[in-house]
Write a structure and sequence with these properties.
It is built from no helices and 4 strands. The chain is mainly β and 71 residues long. It has a 4-stranded antiparallel beta sheet with strand order 1-2-3-4, with no helix packed on it.
Length: 71
């Protein structure tokens, strides 16, 4: 990752969308986020906990779909 060129440096478009957010308790939350980093379209499932007034991601599960960059 450290040697990988950033998408912005190569003029690649990026899109981020919060698909859903669920807060079952005052200190826990679940987010589904989708990000486009061509040629990959990611879906992330994030679990967060609030501790001392700060939200922190405590787990992340992801999957991606390869897209045709010419589309």
């Amino acid at each position: 990752v450290a040697n990988r060129q950033a998408p912005a440096a190569r003029g690649a478009r990026r899109e981020d969308v919060i698909v859903s957010m669920y807060r079952p308790t005052p200190t826990t939350a679940h987010l589904r986020v989708q990000e486009l980093f061509l040629p990959k379209f990611f879906t992330d499932e994030l679990t967060l906990m609030k501790e001392n007034g700060t939200w922190r991601i405590v787990s992340k599960v992801w999957d991606f779909e390869l897209l045709d960059e010419g589309a």
